[in-house]
Amino acid sequence: MTKKEKRSSTRTTQAKKSRKEHGGSLAIGRRRKTRPLNIKQSHHITLKSIHAVGPRSLFRHKKMILSLMKKYSVRFQVKIYEYAIQGNHIHLLIKAQSREGLQNFFMVIAGHSAQRILKEFPLNQNEGGASGHGGQRVGFKFMGYRQ
Questions:
Q1: pLDDT of amino acid 14
Q2: Which of 57, 63, 90, 144 counts the most CB atoms within 10 A of its CB?
Q3: CA distance 97 to 113
Q4: What's the rounded Cα separation, in Å, for the pair 12 and 47?
Q5: Class for domain 37-146, per CATH?
């Protein structure tokens, strides 16, 4: 086997591993190992926002979040078995048809709900700096999942 073939084989193996595991940059230093993401099983997911307090509480915007979840669960083929919307976080028990669909579902739910809430109740300088969010990404943080 040539060096080029070995490199190609290694890249393919690494690509396959990354597609079967989940955790991303948020998991670095927090877990002993990455956990496999099996689309054949349901998963308990937690999405959290540090800015969801007072008028930006997720519970206060429950109807809007539910309508987004209903709309995009159909689009991205994600089945929602159970959910709980708390003040600053959301619990979801879900199952997806594909990994890409699951990732897109998270991005859209987090992004759209954060945009709508912050449009109505923007951050002031004390909460996030002069630019409104201090150069940080505003929205939800993927906290993890359990099988």
A1: 46
A2: 90
A3: 23
A4: 31
A5: alpha beta
Name 132's Cβ contacts closer than 8 Å, sequence gap at least 6: 122, 123, 125, 138
CA distances from 104 to 58, 64, 69, 111, 120 (A): 20, 18, 12, 10, 24
Helical spans, DSSP H, in the chain = 3-20, 62-75, 99-120, 125-128
Are 91 and 46 spatial neighbours (Cβ–Cβ below 8 Å)?
yes
Confidence (pLDDT) at 9: 53
Q: How many CA atoms lie within 13 A of 103 on its CB side?
A: 10
Structure tokens at 107: 């991005």
CB atoms within 10 A of CB 130: 8
How does pLDDT run across 4-62, given as a tens digit for each residue? 565 555 544 444 444 445 555 555 566 555 666 777 889 888 888 888 889 999 999 99
Residue 68 scores a pLDDT above 60: yes
Residue extent(s) of CATH 3.30.70.1290 domains in the chain: 37-146
